[in-house]
Specification:
202 residues; alpha+beta; nine-stranded antiparallel sheet; 5 helices; 32% strand; globular; disordered C terminus
Length: 202
């Protein structure tokens, strides 16, 4: 866990300030929001509920560290998770399936309904597999857009999310969030390459 915290803590905003690593209580709250984790939430089509949950790559059973970066008005959330169970690997495919089968879909919670949509975004992300999308939830107060990305490298999964004002992100918004994720992915690769060799003959 200390290594994951160091990874997300290494990220710096474009104007210089370092990321602020979340404590356990903050992380648990963020995970609940990202995973649409309310037991009372329903979706139409019904099968979209599990796809959206799995596609969030937010699960308190998986070792994860998270950090906030940037000013409150345009803050980004970065997470780094170590998962060798296959849950998050499958989650990336669930996210891609949700984009095909659950956009649009209807979310219902406490008698209130909202429309959910997911649209793809082109982003230069490092790692073995990656995807980027804009999630739009339209409720009684209007449309709420979140730019979200994930990249994986081996058992390391790095996600980033950022509230944006429009369904189409600007080039600067995409570059900023993908840059944060690539910093973590590239830093992990360098750390692995520089680790001392152990074993017979080392």
């Amino acid at each position: 866990m200390a290594q994951l915290r160091a990874m997300v803590g290494s990220v710096r905003a474009v104007d210089g300030p370092a990321a602020v690593v979340m404590d356990d209580a903050q992380l648990k709250k963020i995970q609940g929001i990202q995973s649409l984790g309310s037991a009372w939430l329903r979706t139409d089509p019904a099968e979209c509920l599990s796809l959206l949950h799995d596609g969030s790559l937010s699960d308190d059973r998986i070792q994860t560290a998270a950090a906030l970066i940037g000013p409150p008005a345009s803050q980004s959330t970065i997470t780094a998770s170590s998962d060798n169970s296959g849950l998050f690997w499958q989650g990336i495919y669930s996210l891609e399936k949700a984009r095909t089968h659950c956009s649009p879909s209807t979310l219902t919670l406490d008698g209130q309904t909202a429309q959910y949509e997911l649209s793809p975004v082109l982003a230069d992300l490092h790692g073995q597999k990656s995807t980027a999308n804009v999630q739009t939830i339209t409720d009684q107060t209007g449309a709420h857009h979140t730019l979200s990305m994930v990249a994986m490298d081996g058992t390391l999964f790095v996600t980033g999310s950022k509230k944006i004002p429009a369904v189409q992100p600007t080039a600067a918004e995409v570059k900023e969030l993908s840059g944060y994720i690539n910093t973590v992915i590239d830093g992990a690769g360098k750390a692995a390459a520089s680790a001392p060799t152990t074993g017979v003959g080392a």
